[in-house]
Amino acid sequence: MVNKHKPWIETSYHGVISENTDTVLLDPPLVALDKDAPVPFAGEICAFKIHGQDAPFQAVVLNKTSGIGLLQAKSPIDCELQKEYTFIIQAYDCGSGPSGSGWKKSHKAVVHIQVNDVNEFPPAFREPMYHAAVTEGKIYDSILQVEATDQDCSPQYSQICNYDIVTPDTPFAIDRNGNIRNTEKLSYDRQQQYKIMVTAFDCGQKRATESVLVRIDVKPVCKPGWQGWNKRVDYEPGTGSKQLFPKMHLETCDEPLSSVRATVELQTSHIGKGCDRETYSEKSLQKLCGASSGSTDLLPAPSASTNWTASLLTDSGRDSDLIFRFDGRQAAKIPDQVVPQNLTDQFTIATWMKHGPSPGLRAEKETLLCNSDKTEMNRHHYALYVHNCRLVFLLRRDFTQVDTFRPAEFHWKLDQICDKEWHYYVINVEFPVVTLYVDGVTYEPYLVTDDWPIHPSQIDVQLTVGACWQGGEVTKPRFTQYFRGSLSGLTIRPGKIESQKVISCLQACKEGLDINSLESLGKGIKFHFNPAQSILVMEGDDLENMNMALKKVAYINSRQFPTPGIRRLRISTSVQCFGEDTCILVPDIEAVVMVLQPSEPRITITGTERLTQPAADLSGLAGLPLFQDLHIISTVTKNDAPSHSRAHRPGVLEEIIHNLDYCDVLVMGEELNPGQESLHLDRSSLLGKHLDATNSTSGISIYGVDSMSNYEQVVRQVRYHNWHAAELSERKFRLTCSELNGRYTSNEFNLEVSVLHRSGAESHVNHMAVQPQYLQAVHHPVMAHSQSSTHNSAIPSAATVVIVMCITALVVTVVLGIYRIHVAHQRSSDSADRTKGGEMDWDDSALTITVNPMENIEEPQAADNEASEEEEDEEDEEEDEQDDDITSAESDDSDEEEARVPRGPQENKRRNQLEWDTTTLPY
C-alpha cells in the first residue's frame, strides 16, 4: 500500500474561547482531507499537532475517516493572564500501514484564538475613604472625585460605567466619572457634617462589593440668623410651661443694630376649632364660664329628642368635638317648641364657624340661621348669613303703632370670615344696638341699613339652620341660600345678652405662649400678646436683652388631657441698623412643639352589684336608694420607675382627680312603666353643683362638668320606686360615666335588684330552720348590704357561732314542728297557686316567734342547691333534715355565690315563687 498524498487543511483558522472554559469554537471548523481516501491508513487522519511557545491548547481527531478534529484548551483559560493566542497547526495521516510508518503531514496553518472575558471581578475603590470640606452657602460643580477600578480584561467589564450614592435623602449627586457635587446650599447650623456611601458599577452592571464612605464637612460662614434652637420641642402634659428656646441667640455678624423686633407665632389652626380648648358640651362650658341660663343649642348631637340634626353631615373633630359640615345641600328645620316664635329686644346668637370664599363670580347669600314665614310668604324676620365675605345680620321687627324706618341690616367686613379658619362669633342684640364679637374682640358694623317693620299676619315662622325656608309666595316651599362651610356650637339665648367676660371664657384657648419671669425681661423690652396668646411680639434696642427675652418664651397647655400632636412655631424677625439704607436679613425659623400622648385615665365604678330588698322598700315613700355605697375613682399608668427596672415593672398605677361630664343610669330590659314605677332624683341634691339631670322611662342622665366626688354624691341619691312591687321579681340597671364628651368612659357598672315577697299579715319565721332550697332567697337588708359591700364583711367569731348553735338547739324542736305544718299547708295549696300563676306564699299571721338578735350575723357559706331538683324531693329532704344539726350559716347561700352561678329560666321562675319577706321579723 502506498501513501501518495499529504493531508490538506485550511491555511488559517480563527477561534474564540470563553475564559474559565476549555472548548474552542473555530472558524472554519478543523477538518483535514487526504486524496488517498478511501484507502485505509493512507486516506485516514491520525493526528493534529500544534507548534508554538507553550500554547495551552491541544487538537484531537474525532473521526479518522472524515478527518474532523477538535481544538480544546488543556486547562481553563484566564483572560486576565492572556487575552489571545497564535500558533501553528498541522495534520498527519496514518501512513502506509498499521504501524504508522510513512506518514505524511500537511502544510502549516496559522490559528488565532481570542479569549472572551467573563465579568467575574466587581469594581473596587482605590481609596478606603474619601474626605472633603466645603463652605456653607455655595453650590459646587465638583466637591471631590472618587475612583474605582476593575480587574476584568475586556473593556466592557473592566471599565466603570456608573457611580451611585447609596445613602438616601442627601443633598448631593454624583456623575458617571465619580465627581460629587451638592444639589442645594449647605448650612452649618442645620448639619455640620455629612457621611454618604458611594458605590460603583462596571459596564456589565456588576456592583462593587463594598461601598466607600465619603465624609463632607461643612464649614460655617458668618451669616445673620437665630442660632442654638431645636427643631422640635417635646411637651409632657401636666408639666406647666416649658421654655422653647433656652439656648437661642441672634447672630448679626458684628453688624451694628439699632433695634430688633421678633414675632413668635404658635400655629394651632389644625387642633379642633382653632386651638386646644376644653371639649365639653356647649352647655357644660357655659356653666363653667358663668353664662346666663336659657341658652338653646340649635345644633345638638342627633338623638330621639333632637332628631333635626340627624340628616346633617358631621365631621368627627378632635376629642369628640361635634362639627357640622355644610356643602350647599343640607339644612335643618328647628322644631317650633325649641325657640320662641318672636325674640325680645335682647338676645344673643353664638357659633363657631369655619368658612372660605364662595366659588364662582356671583356669590350668593349663605345662610347660617334664618327665621322666616312657614307658609304662603317669604318674609325673613331675622337671619344671619355670609355674602361676599361679609357677615350680615338681618333683624326686622314686627309692626307696632309706630310705622317708621328702623335699623334692619348690620354688615361687618372682616378677614376672618373667609380665611378658612375656625373663629368664635357672638352677636349681642340690644335693639337697636347690635355688637359682634369675633374671638372675644369687639367689632362694630361698618354699615347699618334701615327697613320698614313687618306687617302683622297669622302666619307662623320657621327657624332653620344651613339655609333659609321660602314659604312659597311664588314657587313651592323650599330651602334656598344654602351655607357652605362648617359650624359648631350654634346657640341662641332669648331675653338676655352675654357679657364679654363670658364670651372670652367660652372661646379661650387652654394652650398658648407664655413668658417665664416677666420681671427679668429688662426695661428696654416691649412685648404684646394677642387675645388668644398664640402670637407674641417682642421689641428691644439691646441685642443681649433680646436674646435673654427670647429664651424666656415658653409653651403652656393647662388641659389635664391635651390633644396630642404637633403645634407649629414660626419666628419672624426684622432689624434696623445704624445709618444704613439696607440692613441684614434674618431668615424666619420654623419649629414644632410635640405635645406627647397624655396618660389616659381609667375611670372605675365600684359598689354593690346586687341588692335583695323587700317589696315594701320599693313601694315606700322614700323608694330604694340604688347606689348607696358607690365609688368612682380614676387611675393612670405612669412610667415613673427607673429605666433599669422598667423591664420588670412597666408602669405604676396612680390615682388622679379630674372632672366628669355625665353619668347615665340606664334601665336594662323593658323601659320603666310610668304607671307603676320610676327613677327619682331629688333636685335639691344638685344645688351648689354644676350639674343638671334629665329623667325618662329609659333612665336618668346627670350631666355637667363637675368633680367625681360631686357625681358620687348625686348618683347615690338616685332612688327607684315601684308601687306594684309585689308583681316584680327583679330589675337591672347600668351606670356609666364619662369625661370629655366620651373621650374617656368608665366601665359599665351593672346593678341587679331582687325583690323579696310575702302574703297575708306579718310573717315571723325563724329562718335558721328553713331548708337551703327555700332560704337562698331570704336576706335581711342589713345582711345583704354587709355581704355585697366591698368594705365590710360580716364574719362571725368562734364564740358567736357557739352561741348561735346553743340557741338553735333550744328552739329547733318548736321551729321544725311549725315548719312542717307550713310545708304541708304550702304543698296543699301548691297546685291551686300554679293554675293561677301565683307565688308560693303562705300565711303565718298567727305565728309569733322571737328570734335571737345574734342570728343577724350570718357566715357566708355556699349551699349545695340543684336547679333541676323536683318538687317531690322536698319532703324527703325535710325528713333527712330532722336528724341534722343545722345552723343558719350552714343553710344560707351568699349573694356572691348566687351571682356567680348561672341559673336556668325554670329555676329563676321557681326562685321568684319561693321568695318571702323578712322585714317584719322582730330582731
From TrEMBL:
Ranges for domain Cadherin: 9-125, 126-226
Domain of life: Eukaryota
Subcellular localization: Cell projection, Dendrite; Endoplasmic reticulum membrane; Golgi apparatus membrane; Postsynaptic cell membrane
Entry GO CC: cell surface; dendrite; endoplasmic reticulum membrane; Golgi membrane; postsynaptic membrane
The protein's name: Calsyntenin-2
Topology in the lipid bilayer: Single-pass type I membrane protein
GO molecular function, one term: calcium ion binding
Gene3D superfamilies: 2.60.120.200, Cadherins
UniProt-listed SUPFAM superfamilies: Cadherin-like (SSF49313), Concanavalin A-like lectins/glucanases (SSF49899)
Gene Ontology BP term (one): positive regulation of synaptic transmission
Transmembrane intervals: 798-819
Organism: Anguilla anguilla
Region (Disordered): 852-923
Keywords, comma-separated and alphabetical: Calcium, Cell adhesion, Cell membrane, Cell projection, Endoplasmic reticulum, Glycoprotein, Golgi apparatus, Membrane, Postsynaptic cell membrane, Repeat, Signal, Synapse, Transmembrane, Transmembrane helix
Main location per the UniProt record: other
Recorded family membership: Belongs to the calsyntenin family.
InterPro entries for the chain: Cadherin-like_dom, Cadherin-like_sf, CLSTN_C, ConA-like_dom_sf
Residue ranges with Acidic residues bias: 866-898
SMART domains: CA
